[in-house]
Amino acid sequence: MHFPALADTAHAASPAFAVALDNVGMQHIDLILTLSDLPQHPLAVKADVSVNLPQPDKKGIHMSRLYQHLYQWVQVQSVSPATLHDLLTILLQSQQECASASASLHLSAQLLLRRPALKTPALAGFKAYPLTISATLINNELNIELSVVIGYSSTCPCSASLSRQLLSEQFQQQFAGQPVVDTALASQWLLQHASLATPHSQRSTAQLRIKLNPAQHDFGILPLIDRAEQALATPLQTAVKRADEQEFARLNGANLMFVEDAARRLHAALSQHYDAFSIAVAHHESLHPHDAVANVTFAANSNG
Q1: Using CA atoms, how far apart are residues 204 and 233, in angstroms rounded to an integer?
Q2: Fewer beta carbons within 10 angstroms: which end of the chain, N or C?
Q3: Which pTM was predicted?
Q4: CA dist 8 → 12, 54, 59, 227 (Å)
């Protein structure tokens, strides 16, 4: 059956205003793909893809070509820093009539990882880590950035100090005048009264942005998450029993953190492994109706 040729308005017409555009493309494309870090773990992502339109007299790009090439490519390729250059090159080649010289791809997903309980053998659950991968190819130079959001718990050092002070005062009142305090009585008193004032803690988040080497063969997602959680020492938990909850409380007590402390811990941990990164930390306060935040950037060739 013969179909008549359909008009290509984007290329047959001229724009009403002749202006070059920095980016033209699509956002929130639904895709399933695999990352080189997790080849057996298909990931549902939202993809943003675009190219520049440098010719002012061009009405528009071949939008559908971007979608088709992206969709077809992820069916047969695992996404890695090393393969992103090929993908973005293909996207640019699909827009030769537009003389596009830059292409960008942004992938966002919720990475689900199985995380074990702190103490109970075989007890585990899935925890989501918001993940983004951004890649831009400009004049054949590729820049890649990985972003991961880490959830953890933070206990305020000031609040803990005030709670200990109140406990100490109550203890002195209870055993005042006794030259020797019976340890059994003191232990029993602490079991009943040690929580008469509790320090405030809150769920907290750290967003880590890492600049990657385009030549590397994976994104290093799992090592980044592990380094961050080890540095903070109080990662959020999934399934727990009482022993796990008690260990979580112990870790919070042993790792009191202002938001400044959390940012500095992460900086110290990441600067040993990455040449450039930024950290944005937020403690979602339980004492206040606002958040406490801290930010820090690092580049190995600077004094920052």
Answers
A1: 12
A2: N
A3: 0.89
A4: 6, 20, 10, 52
